[in-house]
Structures are given as structure tokens and as C-alpha cells.
Design brief:
Length: 310
């Protein structure tokens, strides 16, 4: 097999990132017709130096990606440049300070479990730290107060599964019934009738989303970063790959791509139903019946409940 030419490599890069034709055209500074002619292989004219340099600049590839061996090309194609990844290893307190700084103006977060730490810490001490420094307690309080401010913009996604586990699972659940009631009321009061905030509950089973139940993911397109918390040693991984940031953000904002979910305007109603069920000690199945009766989201909850549930 011969060395891949410039058109073949351009197509491989285009396919690698899954961009729209319009977006990729803007990256390379060409119109859609020109890009389409390369993708459809209706032209044999090689991409210009300007096009190749534009691709290298945007995707941060070395310029030798156009004339290296096929094996090296494949390696470069799939490698994340080191300067696009940063590890924040500053301990628990340092991690909290980092998150406060990056989410100072606004935040867009996919939570691994319900509730988020800002709501949990307002009601109970963190169940995940045996001993906590005074600085950590102070930082957690600052975070909670900041996020709960009416005018602070916060978009938050939780899986329906994590909400049901919080409310009904006896396994790995540190909350008493009274604490559950307090937390649900706090979250409800925070998001209900507040245009600055958005609560989305998504179905992680109709379209499987791997890893969303293990890492706190924060996306900030304006700062051109996203970061996630590693499940060990308070490590945070920061990524500044613009393509990845845009793709993940688009997945949770574009109505044609988002997983099936409960609209932000309806999520508080779900919390209200759940709150009443917990207060009256109703079962998971009884809660599901109430959701089916009072909303159009019964199917989403059915996807998250065992078919063998009595």
C-alpha cells in the first residue's frame, strides 16, 4: 500500500473529529463545495499549503503529518497533544480552589451522581472524607453559597438512575430520610422558576453513556477548557482540545444529539413528586406510577427500573 496523499489524510482527519462540513470548511478557510469535492474524491488536486497549515494549527498537529509514513500518520492522528492536557495534583483543598476558580462566572456540569456536592454539603458533612481541614470546609461552604445564588448561571445534568438511587437504594446511600427531604427541597427551590439555572435529568439507558457515573465533568466553552475529577487522590484532568470541548458541549446542548431527558422546565415537577413520595414513604414502583400519571416521562423512568420489580 502506497503512502497516503494529502486528500486521503485530510479525509481521515475530517472523519476523526466528526465535524459538520460547514465547520470543517471554516477551519480550512474553504467553501463547502471545495471540501465536498475532496471528501467525494471528485478532484485530485492536492490541498494547498495554507489548508494543511490551517488544519495543523487548529488541531495542533505537527506539520510532518502530511509527509510522514502511514504508520506515523495513524499514530499522530489519534494522539492527544500533551499541551492540551494538564493534570492538577494539588490535593483536596487545591482541587476545590481550582474548581471554584474555573466555575467562578458560570458552570455547565454533568454530575456522576445525585445530588451534586454543593447541595449535599449544605445539608450534611461530606460522607467521603474521614477528616477534613478547616480550609476544605471553608471552600466547600463558599462553593455551595456561590452556586445557590439566584443569579449564578448553573446548568446541571444528572442521570435518572442516580436520582432513583439517591431516593430508593439502600446500598451505598449515606442519607437519612430527613436528609433526603432537605436536599430535594433545596434542589427544588434552587431550580424552580429560575431562568439562570437549568436542571436536566437524562436517561442513561436508552443510549448508554459510558463513564458518566464515575466522573464530575465541567465544560466551559468560553474559557475553552473542560475538566473532570479523577476518582482517586483528588486529581483533576484539564483538557483544552477545542474539538473535544465543542463536541461534548454540543452533545448536551443540541436537541438533535442530546440523550433522552426531562426538560429543564419539567425537572422541578419530578423533584416535587419524588419529595412527596419520600415524605409518605412510598416505594419506587409507586413513585413510577405517580410520574406516569402526572407527567409524560413514565417511559424514561421505566427504562431505569428492573422489569422484575414487584
Amino acid at each position: 500500500m502506497g503512502i497516503k496523499n494529502g486528500i486521503e489524510r485530510l479525509i481521515a482527519i475530517y472523519n476523526r473529529y466528526g465535524m459538520s462540513i460547514s465547520k470543517f470548511s471554516s477551519v480550512i478557510g474553504k467553501d463547502r463545495r471545495t471540501l465536498t469535492s475532496w471528501i467525494d474524491k471528485t478532484t485530485s488536486k492536492e490541498p494547498s499549503i495554507q489548508v494543511k497549515n490551517a488544519i495543523c494549527t487548529f488541531f495542533r498537529y505537527p506539520k510532518n503529518i502530511w509527509d510522514c509514513s502511514n504508520e506515523e500518520f495513524e499514530e499522530l492522528l489519534n494522539k492527544v497533544p500533551e499541551e492540551q492536557v494538564r493534570i492538577i495534583d494539588e490535593g483536596y483543598e487545591g482541587g476545590l480552589a481550582y474548581i471554584l476558580d474555573k466555575e467562578r462566572e458560570e458552570r455547565f456540569v454533568i454530575h456522576p451522581r445525585f445530588p451534586g456536592p454543593a447541595y449535599r454539603d449544605k445539608i450534611i458533612d461530606s460522607p467521603y472524607k474521614v477528616s477534613t481541614s478547616d480550609l476544605a470546609k471553608k471552600l466547600r461552604l463558599i462553593r455551595s453559597d456561590h452556586i445557590l445564588e439566584y443569579g449564578f448561571r448553573s446548568i446541571e445534568w444528572y442521570s435518572i438512575e442516580s436520582l432513583l438511587k439517591f431516593a430508593f437504594s439502600p446500598i451505598g446511600n449515606p442519607y437519612t430520610m430527613e436528609q433526603k427531604i432537605q436536599i430535594l427541597k433545596l434542589v427544588y427551590d434552587t431550580f424552580n422558576d429560575n431562568y439562570n439555572k437549568g436542571l436536566y435529568l437524562f436517561d442513561s439507558h436508552s443510549t448508554k453513556l459510558y463513564g458518566m457515573d464515575t466522573a464530575y465533568i465541567s465544560i466551559n466553552p468560553k474559557q475553552k477548557i473542560l475538566f473532570f475529577k479523577m476518582p482517586i487522590d483528588s486529581l483533576i484532568v484539564e483538557i483544552c482540545n477545542q474539538v473535544l470541548i465543542d463536541r461534548l458541549h454540543r452533545y448536551f446542548t443540541s436537541m438533535s444529539q442530546t440523550p433522552k431527558h426531562i426538560l429543564r422546565t419539567d425537572s422541578p415537577k419530578i423533584l416535587s413528586i419524588l419529595l412527596e413520595c419520600i415524605k409518605t414513604r412510598r416505594t419506587l414502583l409507586e413513585f413510577y406510577e405517580q410520574v406516569s400519571l402526572k407527567t409524560t416521562y413514565g417511559e424514561l423512568f421505566a427504562n431505569n427500573i428492573s422489569v422484575d420489580l414487584p
